[in-house]
Structure formats: C-alpha cells, structure tokens
Amino acid sequence: MPIFEYVCNRCKKQFEELVFSQDEQAVCPSCGSTDTAKLMSCCRGKMGGGAADSDAPVAKASTSSSSGGCAGCSGGNCSSCH
Fold first, then answer.
1. pLDDT at 14 > cutoff 90
2. Where are the domains of the chain?
3. What number of other Cβ atoms are within 10 A of residue 26's Cβ?
4. What is the spatial distance between Cα 32 and Cα 2, in angstroms, rounded to a whole number?
5. Of 8, 25, 35, 46, whose CB has the highest number of CB atoms within 10 Å?
6. What is the pTM of this model?
7. How confident is the model at residue 16, as a pLDDT?
8. Could you confirm whether domain 1-42 is CATH 2.20.28?
C-alpha cells in the first residue's frame, strides 16, 4: 500500500495519504474537501546499513540553482521542489 502526496485545491494544504486502491479519492484532513490533486514525490532511499558501508558509492543530488532542482535545501522535500 503506497503513500501518496496530495495538495488540496481548496485550501492549498499538502498532505500524505495511505492509498488502498487506485480509485480511492483523497480527502483533505484540513478542510474535508475531495478536490485534491496527486503530487509528484521525490523518492529517497538509504543505501547500505550505515557507517560500515562507507565504501559504497552514493549518488548525490545536484543542489545547483541552475539545475532547476532543490537549490534552497538538501532534503529534497521542500516547497521549492514542487
């Protein structure tokens, strides 16, 4: 069961929702509206098990403002990423 990110078109609140089926309509927890839109989510994973895997190659995301990505943070989950 995936967790999707949504934005409410009425109150503009962003929220996450555990989805049980493709046809399920997300309801805004702030205002109760069903006028919601699914957002494109950034997927982050952790390679390896921690410090012992420091030899493992890790791809780093570009934080350059010219790339159009997340220039203001390194988290990949801020409002400028959307």
1. yes
2. 1-42
3. 21
4. 21
5. 8
6. 0.49
7. 94
8. yes
Q: What is the largest CA-CA distance in the chain?
A: 48
pLDDT of res. 68: 46
**β pairing state of 14-18 and 3-8:** antiparallel
pLDDT at 65 (0 to 100): 41
54-60 LR contacts (CB < 8 Å, sep 24+): none
Please answer whether residues 26 and 49 qualify as being in contact, where contact means their C-beta atoms are separated by less than 8 angstroms.
Answer: no
CA distance 29 to 43: 23
| Across 50-72, average pLDDT | 47
Distance of CA 14 to the CA centre of its chain: 10
Q: How far apart are CA 34 and CA 25, in angstroms?
A: 7
Dihedral, CA atoms, 59, 40, 76, 78, nearest 10 degrees? 170
Calculate the average pLDDT of the chain.
71
